[in-house]
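## Example record

The block below lists the input lines for one assembly entry, exactly as stored, with component labels intact.
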Amino acid sequence: MGETLKSTPFAELHRAAGAKMAPFAGYDMPVQYAGVLAEHAAVRHRIGIFDVSHMGHAIIENPAVSFHLSRPIEEIAMGKSCYLLILNAQGGIIDDCIVYRIGAHRWHIIANASRKEVDFDALEKIAPIIRRPELAMIACQGPGVLPLLGELAPRRGFTPNREVLGVEVELTARTGYTGEDGYEFVLEGSLAPELWTRLIEKGAEPCGLAARDLLRIEAGLPLYGSDMDETTTPYETGLEFALHPDRDFIAHDSLTKRVTTRRRAGLTMPKGAVPRHGYPVLDAAGAKVGEVTSGTFSPLLDKGLALAIVAADSKPAAIEIRGRACPAEEVSLPFYRRKKS
Amino acid sequence: MSESEIPKHLHYTREHEWIALGASDALPARVGISWHAQHELGDIVFLELPQVGRHVERGEAVAVVESVKSVSDIYSPIKGTISARNESVEASTVNSDPYGAGWLFEIAPAAGSVEAREGLLSSSEYRDFLGTL
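Predicted structure tokens for the full assembly:
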């Protein structure tokens, strides 16, 4: 047996529910329960819940860390969340994160599981941060969430220290990774299984990482490691909206000098062979102009979907799958946008 | 594992295909994927089946089964010629009925290939093999 996997507080609940488990970022995580398509339907039509306790949490008290970030955390309004990037000196992306302004000199940052150690080490080179490994997180997403739980937090914001179904939750955030409305609940690991169980009793359906990947691609949301990495800049990955470059920060000089030759593209394909990470993207003449960075089949749109990185001036027309050029169409992102009520 | 998951009358490969062999190699052999294979793949969304008339070697990749999260090559369990493909099967039927309506293709076996049973496992041998995974 290889290295010991870490467990989230829900590991026993997942196994008891018959989840198919697999290693992810060093954790034993649920990949699926009832099946990807059933879980996808739960989130798009009802309420789906995800154990995302593998992700990393830290408290920032010194805004000097903004030097390493794509935008300054001092500018985040109290009670609001902000999507931003941790950058390196070349303008490459170390991770994407969400930061919540919880006090005048206090921010809560949530980082990807596979990058949290790298992220926190980078920030600590500038100022100390307080890591919070005891925190767990449940994402609760779908059109049924607000009707069930009410408006617990404002749009793009959060509510600190409130009870949800009688369980004390440190951060109730109106954020998510699925394209649906809902919350992410950040709470003490020891309290988390109780909240999970109560949500299930209220009809929430457990969903795994496979469904999560399908949902976020439909919503046009990138995944660190697939769609961006330390060699890609915000300009090449459709993330320039998260960048305030005109200030003194780690990547100012490199991004000013660096010529951007690539861009992000969203592509759809008719139902058939599924586009996947690494597959070549071709133009109408059959020349390679880029690569798929994330791909899936969408049961909602009944099409193959791909996020890709392509030459800035190219017109993608096909994706090469097992040696065949399969027609693809570039569309604007996101692929799916929920109806706003 | 129940009988419905590893039917006794079929043979299996270590790549998780099943094959329904006739009494002799004059009879076409039907091929599909096992219950274990469809369970591992998850929700199947697309199939690429081989062309009828194609000559195939034992172990040659001849078909593709795609689920949302992964793509799997399907290998021919015996040497022969593709004699039929399950043209209009729904991808999801391969999950729900892998041994019945979810069959993938049929092979006219090459002379001697049925008798040789090379690389083919009985249901109890396949059960034992699954236990080692």
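The CA atoms of residues 277 and 293 of chain A lie 5 Å apart. The interface with chain B takes residues 20, 31-32, 35-37, 210, 213-214, 271-274, 276, 296-297, 299, 322 of chain A (CB under 8 Å).
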